[in-house]
Design brief:
The structure is a homodimer. By secondary structure, chain A is an alpha/beta fold. Helices cover 35% and strands 25% of the residues of chain A. Chain A folds into two domains: 64 residues, Ribosomal Protein L25, Chain P, CATH 2.40.240; 168 residues, SPOUT methyltransferase, trefoil knot domain (Alpha/beta knot, 3-Layer(aba) Sandwich), CATH 3.40.1280. In chain A, the strands form two sheets. In chain A, strands 8-7-6-11-9-12-10 form a seven-stranded parallel beta sheet. In chain A, helix 2 packs parallel to helix 3. The longest helix of chain A is centred in the last third of the chain and has 19 residues. The radius of gyration of chain A is 20 Å and the shape is elongated. The mean pLDDT of chain A is 92.
Chain lengths: 245, 245
């Protein structure tokens, strides 16, 4: 945990928060928090700052937070991901949040099995703690928005323009396509990146994406597993920002 | 499995191979292989080509391989990684191979626990199948070399120059450092990238790396878990190659 994240409604008027449970245990057992010690704190979807431990008991800690004025910017990329099987989805939540995503859309596709949508890993009560774990790791406070799309076609045709009005729409697909770097190097806009299921998008789906303005990109000659591909794509988006600086 | 990988000594003089076990089951059960059907094949550390199924039984398949002349180039990056804990190491083998690595050095460091080296996940009999799984996914045949380093200091001082004589030596560390992209954009050489343990390199280790010619780089402002960071770094290396084309 590189950033202790609290909810705005946990703070009292003096910016003091008393924690129990997982976060308190981490401060007490892992960070060996003592009165007077400081640590990095952030408010979920809010600013970051420094917390000073006012009291550290056996199961509870009280922390006084001094927060900055600015909330971290929303990460540049949104991800439109064909829902992977539950076991893979479970292990992707934290790394995706750590890489930084504005909005995660999890969609059905022809090669996505319907029963994948029954998993409890699509329940916010189960995935939000994993997203927060990723934010704590990365030191960010921006919780990605998450939308589950049961039918891809009406989403692309009727909802995408309001969900993602401005920016580049890109679709990752093995084979042809513009190499990544070149496309991104001239692009400071927001990005929506579509990543297919293990079996790939069908030709029908590829045409649908094309009609919706998605440009084909490829990530080198290597075919990657969904989870690896998503991290790789998000890493490149950020590295290119680094180049532009 | 996007590429069926065989060992050179499994092929007879006509380039025919008879498989049983995991690979046969994959061809029979997943690819529904029938006589006459073709699939992509590769020889471990050798060329790739096309295989034609000559016989598909219940547990065995015989495949005639027509191989190209060229072996894929060795991936550009070597990775010098502080050994992560066994559970993490286990899940990293396949993704690392899928991203492409020339030589993987797994090293001790002050913040690496000694007992991590006792894991069977450092035994080639256990990790090679996972590396090959990564190659099958990515469509590559180059098995990464793997070296376990029990003492980092003598390795950096006495062995590194012969192990990695030419190319850029880079060390990933949060905080200061040149942003990635800029450093790589002008660099077509081989790269060795050092990635620290979860707790980071110590100042003593950082100075040791500096004396050995490693330049500090940083991967944006986000602190990533080891496995995520490695994939992100390797993705950027490849993307930058894409930009240069």
């Amino acid at each position: 945990m590189n950033l202790l994240i609290v909810n705005a409604d946990e703070l009292d008027d003096n910016g003091t928060v008393t924690l129990a449970g997982r976060r308190a245990r981490h401060v007490i057992d892992v960070l060996h928090g003592k009165r007077g010690q400081t640590l990095k704190v952030g408010v979920l979807n809010g600013p970051r700052g420094t917390g000073t431990i006012e009291e550290a008991g056996k199961t509870q800690v009280t922390i006084r937070c001094r927060l900055g004025a600015e909330t971290p910017v929303i990460p540049r990329a949104d991800l439109l991901l064909a829902l992977p099987r539950p076991k893979v989805m479970k292990r992707m939540w934290a790394p995706l949040a750590s890489m930084g995503i504005g909005h995660l859309y999890l969609t059905n596709a022809e090669k996505v099995e319907r029963n994948y949508f029954d998993t409890h890993w699509l329940d916010p009560a189960h995935y939000e703690p994993l997203l927060i774990e990723g934010l704590e790791q990365a030191g960010d406070t921006r919780l990605p928005d998450v939308t589950v799309i049961k039918r891809l076609k009406p989403f692309l045709e009727d909802e995408l323009d309001s969900a993602f009005p401005r920016g580049s729409r890109l679709i990752a697909h093995p084979g042809e396509g513009t190499p990544w770097g070149r496309l991104l190097a001239s692009d400071k806009e927001r990005l929506m990146i579509a990543v297919g299921p293990e079996g790939g998008w069908t030709d029908f789906e590829l045409r649908m994406f094309e009609r919706a303005g998605f440009k084909r990109i490829r990530l080198g000659t290597r075919t990657l597993r969904t989870d690896t591909a998503c991290i790789a794509l998000l890493a490149i988006v950020q590295a290119v920002k680094g180049v532009e600086k």
